[in-house]
């Protein structure tokens, strides 16, 4: 703005009901400054944590940047997470303020958010919430409780706030944000990112991986700000680079299955960044839908979140990209903060399905169990063998877990948790997680976290969860449960279909709708080794309708027959 680019559009906002707003960089600076002043007035100062629980509306970006201006680390919690998930994240970060909305529009209807905040802030087991104030954006206009002395409407707070704000200067290593992600245990990890390195790498990768020409491009990343992609490639990277971007609130099929393509035509989007699961869903809907819209403005397509299967890659390129556009398949994680492995458009000869090469400055390798680099053609574990600017700086409040999770498999070397292979040219192909983490629609879910949610129900004695290959979502959550003998009393029914529905809803309440198992199978036993470890590999065979693999280490080898028999009925 100081260099005279304030009139450039920063955000074209498209609400799900069709309402629109345009924010220039001047507008954005003004709104962020007012929000920073409003947060200050509520007592937020440098170092305090602020939880953001908002739909995909411009205020989400404004809230994050207002926190950054104050040096108050934000912790964005995806709007699809439940009150309980929100509560545990607020408690872990000891947040002082929550920024939320009355609700957002989803699938044609307002969906409330504020009640979940009220529930998350209630005292539990004699422990009071650390939150002092809640800022509430009015989005849907639905009826909303405002707690006197605690809750403040966003518009009231901003209306009375000064439009200028002097940013707080912080050290490069000052915490910028915490973002919770699922790990292999039941407790989510608060991934900590700091300021200088993170911003450097998000800006660098956004510019070069997407070949950004900020003066002329219209960029659109479909990720929600609740995930790291929304942090690095909606809020920080594009805005540092002065890009013009589209933000869309809703789902791709509201009110019709061509909504995304209509938005691309309307704003003449040139760069699109989305996830394989969305591409596969659109493939299912049929190519006649995008064919109704003018997509010729597109010049670069991106993919993130999971390995993109070559078939989806080819469809993306042919149907959406008109057989002209390069596709960048970008591998990275919440922990890496920014893109690490990706082809560069116009530079790398693409291979459908492969993320290919580490970016300049990044050192990645595929190694075997003994940390020997595998030869071309071999497979093993993906590691990052040199530090990088946007690397995580820790797990919030848990140094031991940080060391243990990332640095102990190969001492001193970052282990990403992904399997990979090198092809004959040395290009990298990602093969999915090698731990108990699932990837559903590009979202990371922990098997253990869902198991804990299931056994927290009175009717459940034991649970095992696996990620089974799914045509659309990459993986789908499949749960095996053993019910308690008195489950009929706890559930008020012994009908299996009803039980499954109750348990799915229970997981939805404990974690959020995204974690609801696609299938729940009631079984009498679970396959365990003699040391009592559940053999998920065998359950995955069952869930994927495969012949069950080697079961010789089972304590009771008849268990798998019982499970398979139960399933076929
Ligand atoms: P998250 O931190 O939730 O974004 O999840 C990161 C994980 O998603 C990685 O560890 C990978 O398993 C997977 N992932 C992300 N991008 C890609 C990609 N382009 N190719 C393959 N896997 C990916």
Features:
single chain, 569 residues, alpha/beta, 8-stranded mixed β-sheet, 26 strands, 30% helix, binds adenosine monophosphate
What does this structure look like?
The protein has 569 residues and is of the alpha/beta class. α9 (276-285) crosses α11. It is globular and about 75 Å long. The mean pLDDT is 94. It contains 17 helices and 26 strands. The termini are far apart. The strands form six sheets. It has an eight-stranded mixed beta sheet, with helices on both faces. A seven-stranded mixed beta sheet has the order 2-1-13-12-14-15-16, sandwiched between helices. Strands 17-18-20-21 form a four-stranded antiparallel beta sheet. A hairpin with a 5-residue loop joins β20 (414-422) and β21 (428-433). The structure holds adenosine monophosphate (AMP). Adenosine monophosphate binds next to β20 and β21.
């Amino acid at each position: 703005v100081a260099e005279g680019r304030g009139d450039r559009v920063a955000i074209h906002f498209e609400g799900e009901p069709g309402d629109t707003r345009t924010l220039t960089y001047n507008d954005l600076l003004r709104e962020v400054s007012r929000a920073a002043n409003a947060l200050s007035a509520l007592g937020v100062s440098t170092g305090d944590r602020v939880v953001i629980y908002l739909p995909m509306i411009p205020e989400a970006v404004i809230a994050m940047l207002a926190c950054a201006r104050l040096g108050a680390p934000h912790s964005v919690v995806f709007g699809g997470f439940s009150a309980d998930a929100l509560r545990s994240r607020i408690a872990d970060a000891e947040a002082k303020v929550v920024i939320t909305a009355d609700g957002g529009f989803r699938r044609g209807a307002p969906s409330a958010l504020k009640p979940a905040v009220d529930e998350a802030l209630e005292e539990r087991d004699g422990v009071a919430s650390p939150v002092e104030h809640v800022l509430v954006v009015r989005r849907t206009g639905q009826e909303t409780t405002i707690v006197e002395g605690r809750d403040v409407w966003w518009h009231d707070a901003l209306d009375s706030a000064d439009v200028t704000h002097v940013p707080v200067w912080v050290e490069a290593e000052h915490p910028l944000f915490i973002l919770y992600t699922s790990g292999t245990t039941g407790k989510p990890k608060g991934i900590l990112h700091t300021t200088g390195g993170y911003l450097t790498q998000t800006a660098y990768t956004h510019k070069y991986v997407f070949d950004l020409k900020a003066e002329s491009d219209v960029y659109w990343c479909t990720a929600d700000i609740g995930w790291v992609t929304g942090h690095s490639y909606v809020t920080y990277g594009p805005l540092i680079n002065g890009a013009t971007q589209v933000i869309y609130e809703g789902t791709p099929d509201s009110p019709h299955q061509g909504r995304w393509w209509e938005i691309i035509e309307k704003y003449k989007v040139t760069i699109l960044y989305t996830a394989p699961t969305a591409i596969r869903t659109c493939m299912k809907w049929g190519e006649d839908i995008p064919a109704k819209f003018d997509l010729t403005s597109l010049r670069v397509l991106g993919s993130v979140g999971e390995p993109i299967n070559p078939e989806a890659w080819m469809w993306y390129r042919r149907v959406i990209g008109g057989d002209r556009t390069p596709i960048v398949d970008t591998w990275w994680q919440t922990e890496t903060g920014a893109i690490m492995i990706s082809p560069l458009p116009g530079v790398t000869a693409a291979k459908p399905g492969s993320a290919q090469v580490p970016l300049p400055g990044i050192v990645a390798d595929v190694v075997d169990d003994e940390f020997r680099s595998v030869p071309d053609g071999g497979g093993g574990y993906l590691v990052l063998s040199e530090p990088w600017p946007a690397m995580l700086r820790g797990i919030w409040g848990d140094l031991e877990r940080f060391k243990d999770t990332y640095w102990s498999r190969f001492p001193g070397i970052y282990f990403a948790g992904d399997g990979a292979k090198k092809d004959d040219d040395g290009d990298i192909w990602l093969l999915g997680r090698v731990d108990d983490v699932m990837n559903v629609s590009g979202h990371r879910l922990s098997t253990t976290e869902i198991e804990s949610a299931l056994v927290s129900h009175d009717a459940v004695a034991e649970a095992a969860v696996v990620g089974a290959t799914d045509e659309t979502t990459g993986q789908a959550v499949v749960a095996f449960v053993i019910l308690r003998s008195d489950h009929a009393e706890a559930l008020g029914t012994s009908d299996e279909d009803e039980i499954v529905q109750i348990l799915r809803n229970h997981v939805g309440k404990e974690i959020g709708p995204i974690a609801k198992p696609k299938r729940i199978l009631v079984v009498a036993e679970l396959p365990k080794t003699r040391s009592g470890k559940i053999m998920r590999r065998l359950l995955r065979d069952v869930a994927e309708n495969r012949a069950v693999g080697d079961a010789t280490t089972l304590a009771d080898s008849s268990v798998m027959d019982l499970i398979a028999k139960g399933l076929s009925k």
